[in-house]
Structure formats: C-alpha cells, structure tokens
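Ops channel
N.P.: pipeline sanity check, posting one input/output pair.
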C-alpha cells in the first residue's frame, strides 16, 4: 500500500469492509430504488453513494449507480447475486452489474501522439493512485514507445492502413480489454 492509498474501513467487529458498485438499468418504474436498497440492506451493506437518472418517468430508461460497503463482500457475493437476480432481474425486469471496487482492473490505453495524458495515467498507476493494471498501450504512432516502455508496459504500434483508423488487430481485442483512455 502506498502513502496515497488508504486502508479499507473496518466494521465495529474489526472485519474489513469492502466496497462494491452496483449498476442497474432498464425500463423506469416505481420501486426500483427501494428494491435495490432493500436487497443491499438485507445483505448487511451500507450504501455510501447512490445516483439515479430516468430519461422519462413514463416509459423512459432508468439508470442507477450504487456504491456500498459490505464486510466480506467476496464471500457474500454469490448470495447477493442470487438476491439481485430474484428481486431486480426477475421481478422488475432490470439488468444489473456488480463489481468489487478493490479489484484491480486490467486496462489497455489507446493513445495518439500527445503524451501528457498517457504519461499521467502511467505515472498514477505506478504510484498507486489508480486501481488499475495497464496491460498495454496501443497507438497509431510510434512516437511514445520509448517513454511507455520505461514503465515496463508493452507498446503496440498499429498504423492507420488505407485510411482505416481501427486496425483489424485492435478490433480483434473485442471486449477483452477495456480502455482507460481512448484518443485518436
């Protein structure tokens, strides 16, 4: 743990509390916030942030992001997922996605010639300010390869071919790697 990171909060019994993020979306209807809150409360979670938005209260799309803390989230996750399936997916017809905030995300960064944002992201990752593991940098210019390799991160130069900015090799990544920064 670096000096910029803080230890996870602990419960009154001294157990480490882990943070989760729950994304819910689907057709707007009454009771969504209550249902999500109820499932989390029954699991023993404490909601620390909740944001929701509807494109239209009648027939619109509903989006909710809930951040919560729960002691032993990793162990409680299967039971929590079953409850979310039952109460959110099956009863309300909504999609949901749960992630554990403490898990490092694997990312690829797509970059161009400009170095300031890219190098800032790499520096922050190296110093523990970003909870990510940069697996690679992909660029349509070779200019930043030496600077990126100093961070011990693979650099892939993928030139624009016949005016196609998205090279077939990059398209082949599909959904396997999420991008932290996407510039052209």
């Amino acid at each position: 743990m670096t000096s910029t990171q803080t230890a996870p909060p602990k419960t009154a019994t001294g157990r480490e509390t882990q943070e989760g993020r729950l994304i819910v979306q689907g057709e707007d209807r009454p009771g969504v916030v209550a249902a999500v809150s109820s499932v989390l409360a029954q699991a023993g979670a404490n909601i620390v942030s909740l944001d929701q938005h509807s494109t239209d209260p009648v027939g619109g799309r509903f989006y909710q992001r809930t951040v919560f803390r729960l002691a032993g989230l990793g162990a409680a996750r299967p039971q929590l997922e079953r409850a979310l399936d039952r109460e959110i997916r099956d009863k309300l017809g909504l999609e949901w996605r749960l992630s554990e905030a403490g898990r490092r995300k694997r990312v690829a960064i797509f970059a161009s010639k400009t170095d300031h944002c890219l190098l800032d992201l790499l520096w922050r990752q190296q110093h523990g300010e970003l909870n990510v593991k940069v697996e690679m940098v992909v660029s349509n210019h070779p200019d930043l390869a030496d600077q990126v390799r100093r961070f011990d991160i693979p650099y892939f130069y993928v030139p624009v071919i016949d005016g196609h900015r998205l090279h077939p090799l990059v398209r082949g990544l599909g959904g396997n790697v999420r991008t932290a920064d996407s510039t052209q």
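N.P.: looks fine end to end. Helices lie at 32-42, 73-90, 116-126, 145-149, 168-171.
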